[in-house]
Amino acid sequence: MIERTFLLRHPSVMVFIALLALFTIGATVLSEGFGIGLISTSFVKTLGKTLCLCLIAIAMDLVWGYCGILSLGHFAFFGLGGYMIGMWLMYERTKSIVVEQLDAAALPPTPDEVREAIGSQIFGVVGGSDIPVIWMFADSLIIQLALVVLVPGLLALVFGWLAFRSRVTGVYLSILTQAMTLALSLYLFQNDSGLRGNNGLSGLQNIPGAETISQDVVSIWFLWASAFALGAGYLFAAWMVSGKFGNVVRGIRDDEARVRFLGYNVEAYKLVVFTVTAVIAGIAGALYYPQAGIINPAEIAPIASIYLAVWVAIGGRGRLYGAVIGAALVSLVSTWFTSGQAPDIPLGFYTIEWVDWWLVLLGFGFVLVTLFAPQGLGGLVDALVRNRQAVAAPPTAPVKPAEKASEAT
Amino acid sequence: MSSLLEVAGVSVTFDGFKAINDLSFEIGAAELRAIIGPNGAGKTTFMDIVTGKTRPDQGRVDYGEPPRSLLKMSESAIARAGIGRKFQRPTVFEQQSVRDNLMMALKNDRRPFGVMAWRAGKDDVDRVRELAEEIGLEEHLDRSAGELAHGQKQWLEIGMLLAQDPKLLLVDEPAAGMTLGEREHTTDLLKRAAETRAVVVVEHDMEFVRRLECKVTVLHEGSVLAEGSLDHVTANQDVIDVYLGR
Q: How far is CA A248 from the centre of its chain?
């Protein structure tokens, strides 16, 4: 019942969930796997990945737009989530291939032989055949799924505890998160990191146990899962910021000292927000990379987290749908420009190739939004809704205090 | 009367400058007190020490019954123990409504997960309405705090302090920038608050202090110069020399 009254009080959440459901059904009907085949499987994957990016954008909006922590590390949590699920996907997939090959031999393979064959299959590329310790649970889907949540969550908890306890704020905190991201990325680039160095994990689109099922179908499964995660994440985020917790967190953004003197432990609040959003980012990453098929340390590079901040800034900080709009729009347009689908513009003396020039366009768009819509695209939506409400209900009818008061109960 | 707050022999130095020098101060459980003194006398630093923002180099700060030291407690723990502070510049959450500002200050569970699940009950709504009436903002509950006039923001902040239900209220220059009528209202608010709790008012304005009709402590160069009624301290030759004479 709590959830129902919550939804009734926040119609924008219902609108969002309805639009998301509509979008998912539409994509399914148009897909090759379940529908009339109007949109290609690779585009379904792009849409599914976009939903995951929207989810991490919500996490970024919570931590930056609401709590005022400009984290440049949330893509690291995203990547870690991807690595955790990628380990299971790659291990189990390799195992089934290896077992199949060894079955052809005269003698049935011993478990050790299977293990060694898996090791050299996965780690041959970095010159090893031993399975590193961190892969000890790679054959268990349950444990790896738990790690999707636990690894980013624990890293954020420890990092956040150290940073917030020392009262590191503002640009220094951003630099610190960026350093963490860079360090993690550089570590993963090493061949002996146990995660295949710069090769990363690949073949993640193949789901163990579902090898015979076409990617046309699998892509739709992941689209559904991503849509569900985005819907649940949106609902959770909206619930979290709708009550006093949201007010305290916004208060921390606007005047940290004042919140402290009201008796709130600011550091604990920041730690909760930082850790919860890291977990959301990890889940988003775990859904993203099976659709991308490959994850490597370059994905975790600091620039990815900076793009994330740009999406949220363009979409509008401090409003959840703004983050979604920003992430969806910018990442889809970016895909269009950088995948060679945008026609190059020959000027005779010079040809504008969008793969190179897209970033200039993005930067220009960022400047335009900053200058003319400082509240982001989400702010434009707000203004539009306000105008329509003003037309529908003339200002002569003020809101009755009693109505508003009942809202708070 | 046993004292609610006892500050004894406190000193603090900033880069060689002695902001507070062997300061001792006491206030009872239901008392109104004004602290006056020239600029740099250490009035704000004194509040910083009591609220945990600044740690003194030496001395003792005991609070409550039975007395316990505030020196090891964090700012938020001190606030939860019942010490509320109003800043010189009105600091309210401008982007949030007057109601949300008051709700946030209401004495309730302050822990993150408790707050996350918390939703206002009827008692809370009533209490907020009561407070709003007391500070004269009952018409403005749904306005965002940023739209309020300067004086109204000051009252809202006092209301937020009262919502915390503190035992000790530290108020830094509440009358700054207020009109005459607003000042009278503020004086009433503070006097009424001091009936049930200790209130310390730091103020520059002598007229305002006179209206409070309370004991006055004069600070100078980080220590107490004189203490007593306003007439008593203004008759003190030291006070006239360092403060009133200027």
A: 25
In a domain, A400, yes or no: no
Asked if residue A345 is part of any domain, the answer here is: no
Are A264 and B96 in contact (CB < 8 Å)? no
Tokens encoding B90: 């009105």
Query: Which of B88, B124, B142, B157 best tests the A interface by mutation, with the highest count of A CBs <10 A?
Result: B142
What crossing angle do the helices spanning A320-338 and A11-30 adopt, rounded to 10°? 30
Residue A36 lies in a domain: yes
> What DSSP string runs through A335-375?
HHHHTT-SPPEE-SS-EE-HHHHHHHHHHHHHHHHHHH-TT
Residue A162 in tokens: 């150290």
- Tokens 């004194």 — which residue? B46
Confidence (pLDDT) at B83: 93
Which tokens hold the place of A58?
A: 């919500």
Q: What is the pLDDT of residues A16-55, one digit of tens each?
A: 999 999 999 999 999 988 888 889 999 999 999 999 999 9
Residue type, B142: D
Residues 6+ apart with CB under 8 A from B78: B50, B51, B52, B70
* Token duo for residue A100: 């199949």
Q: What's the rounded mean pLDDT across residues B164-183?
A: 87
d(CA A404, CA A261): 28
Burial class (CB in 10 A: 0-12, 13-18, 19+), A84: buried
Q: Do A258 and B93 lie within an 8 Å CB cutoff?
A: yes
The CATH class, in words, for B3-244 is alpha beta
Q: Where are the domains of chain B?
A: 3-244
Give which of B205, B131, B138 is closest to B172, Cα–Cα.
B205
Task: Provide the whole-model pTM.
Answer: 0.90
Amino acid of residue A326: G
* Distance, CA of B203 to CA of B88 (rounded, Å): 10
Kindly give the residue spans of alpha helices, DSSP state H, lying in B119-219. 122-134, 150-163, 180-193, 206-212
Three-state DSSP class for residue A194? coil
Task: Copy the structure tokens of residue A362.
Answer: 């993005």
Decide if pLDDT at A400 tops 80: no
B89 at A interface, C-beta within 8 A: no
Residue A323, token pair as written in the block:
């983050």
The half-sphere exposure of B143 on its side-chain side, counting CA atoms within 13 A, is 14
**Cβ contact A261–B99 (<8 Å):** no
Most A-contacting residue of B76, B127, B140 (CB-CB within 10 A), to test interface: B76
